[in-house]
Amino acid sequence: MPSNDMPLSAPPRPAHRDGNVLRWLTAYTLSLVGDAIWMVALGFAAQEVAGPAQVGMVIAAGAVPRALLMLGGGVVADRFGPGKVVIGSDAARCVIVLGIAAALWLTTPALWLLVAGAVLFGIVDALFMPAVGALPPRLTELDQIGRIQGLRMLVIRISWIAGPPLGGLAMAYGGAAAALGAAGLLFALSVPLLMALRLRSVPNDEQPTDTAPQSAWGELVDGLRYIRRHRVIGPLMISGAMSELGTNGLLTVGLILLCGDQGWGPSGFGWIVGAFGAGQAVCAALLAVKGRVPRAGLVQNVMLVVGSASVGAVAFMPTLSAAVGMSLLSGLLCGMCGGLAIALIQTSAEPGYLGRVTSAMSLTGVGLTPLSFPLFGAAISAWGVRPVFVVGAVFSALGAVAGLSSAAVRRAELPHLPGRKNVGRPAAAPAESRI
Which Gene3D superfamilies match (predicted)? Predict the structure, then answer.
């Protein structure tokens, strides 16, 4: 039922002071930490009953359906509303994880059980990720999306720093069953917070009653066509995909092999990756406080070029300390670039397409990028670390060409404060409703 708690004349609250946004952020954090613990527990549980190849198989069993069904999850979020989908999918993840925890507690771990659980979790995750990503424009005014994306990036970094140690601690005291139980508890705690959200109505929530509904496939094709034709979203989506494909392999496989060649070892790898994450966290905090960057489209593309170059430069640093410093700079630049890109896409998208747009953004990171890791390893084996770092950085930087080729992207701005001229879609209506 619509609520009149927020009158039209009330000044908008900054995202970091908005209770509605903070509830979503807390629920999202709990889910992210639960995700991290789930991955730790699943991997170690598989190790107890199988060899290294089977551990990889169990983890891939969840990644494959998630990647294959991600775009379909966006269709579901747009058709039924992201609020309902995110609650249902998070509750389902809780049930799946607690069910596996109970099974491991009562019986000897079996490989088939872990594979089945990973597949189910991956299927549900394909629904959860587009839905939770499509919520921010429904939580507050559009001029706060930049702040929300900064906060989102910050909690992602914090969650993936805190989650694995918490999972390891639970494993040490109670084994995989205890760790999975902890993950399930975190999912359970996030559900009531999601249910308490007040979502703003948006224009596309009211669909014409005289038009025939599209099939799910038709909605998927329509969403992809919308992305391709949009003057801002299409180029930014291509740019982001090129950036992720060019740099993510360098920051994982590439860094592992670089540290081995340079004699820096696992500890050096940890320092470099930690510095990159710290840079992203600092940048996320800055974006969360500032909220809006002038000429965001142009700044995003400049950051993409410089950030890509800094990632490539890590391989040419003569000492570990220099590599750590360059990685910190890379995290700052890439974090700002990524946050601005997501904010621009979400504030430019029509509300009825947000789920499909979010699912397309997520697909590259969770589906396509991991598939490129073996290619990076093979390329480094054939040509060496530094040439591959150069090629990956150049490929990532070329993503800026896709962005700068669009005049709409070059001129794109994040929405101004209410009362000023907005660039992009109109602000959401002030009416609110419980999920």
Answer: MFS general substrate transporter like domains
